[in-house]
Task: structure prediction
Amino acid sequence: MKIREKNTILSCNSLPYNNFQYFRNNDRAWIDLILSKTALIFASIIILAALYHLSADFQQADKQRQLDAIAQDFRSAIDSAGQSPHGTSSSNISYSFDAYGPEGQFTGQLDAWVSGEYVGISYGENNRTIYAVKPLTYKTLPYNETIMRNKLLNRFSASGELADPIVSPFNYLNVSDFLTTLGTKEKNLNTSTKVHIVKTLIHVQNGTEVRELEYVLVYQ
Result:
């Protein structure tokens, strides 16, 4: 003879954790419930903060890549002037920092500078500043032609032009060292206006021999 199994169905009210009476009479249950909800809130805050910082890091990386591209483009413009045939000056190149227009990552003003050894671009936003610095291939001076010639004239009593070469007692090394010192000074550039880039020649005469120093001038 089969014995019929008796299934007992418990109502929700008979389950201890669903019974308000249980929580009212059990302080530990209330503590566990509050702690579990608090932990869930903290976990949500941590996840949201992590997502926010991750998004900010991606945006920062995009801006850094674009800033590097602008610095590289500026350096290439200077190099193009330096690549003109040896012993010849180059035509004047006008360069504009327009690679970060309205469609770009930068909504504010970029800062730029040049020295005899490198170019630099920086951008500041939300109390954070990012930089991109690129070394220069050719000897560079952050001066225009007039200022550079006047500095040579004051130091060597000659402008270094073909018709007015620098002569003894000064030699090629003296002039080169002097110009290298001039190139260590940084020149800030206004990224809202054009930059002029041109290669020029400085002539140094030793007896009947005339040697040429080639420099790229970068100025506004």
User: Anything to note?
Assistant: The first helix runs from residue 20 to 25.
